[in-house]
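# step 3/5: fold
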Amino acid sequence: MGSVDTVGSIFVVFFIVTFVVSWSYETLSILTGFPFGHYVYTDQLGPKLWLVPLLIMPAYFSMGYIAWTLGHVLLDRFDDRLTGAEVVLVPALASFVMVMWDLCIDPASSTISGAWIWRDGGGYFGVPLVNFLGWYLCVFTIYLVFALYLRRSADWTRAENLGDRSTWVLPAVMYAAVMLPRLMEPLAGGDSVEVTSHDGHVWWTGDIHTASALVALFTMLFVTVLALVRVSRSPALH
């Protein structure tokens, strides 16, 4: 990754892997219920590639790369090459970071906004448990494929800017920025109204927003703070 061209090629590979894997899992689940459960997308997210809105794959890519970087930080791996168990450990940690985000957004996006509909509902404000297990499987697959590619790629050489703290602080700041809307919803003070999931269960929008804010505080904010502490204390960075 010592040149702009190489950096660009790495991002292209990550985008391709993310696009193909996420679209495949999403389509499979819509058709069969595996791995996320039975759901369908409405037309709120715009044009689709068959059954999946085109916006979904870039969302996996953008948040996925932030979580991937934070996975490195949580392991104190401020380098561009994974060795040994790190080929699995970084994907495993990054997948948890990614699923934390979904825990915060899925109930509001589905049960309240109706961007997608769970046909059988679910216990987490209309979202089934299997959705989050499927999310973990999906993003872990993306990260593992990418990690194996990087380990085998002859082009993956050390970048000069990886020793800069700002390189590792920025993803944590971006992760926190994504979290902020979840915290603001309960503070907005809007009226709480009833919403009904597809299985006929009635929920209150105020409860959903409050729960999402609590989850964000004690998952996404925790990761953000931990990442910033690790970056600030790392002797490998300047």
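# step 4/5: annotate
The chain has one domain: 4-233.
# step 5/5: archive (pending)
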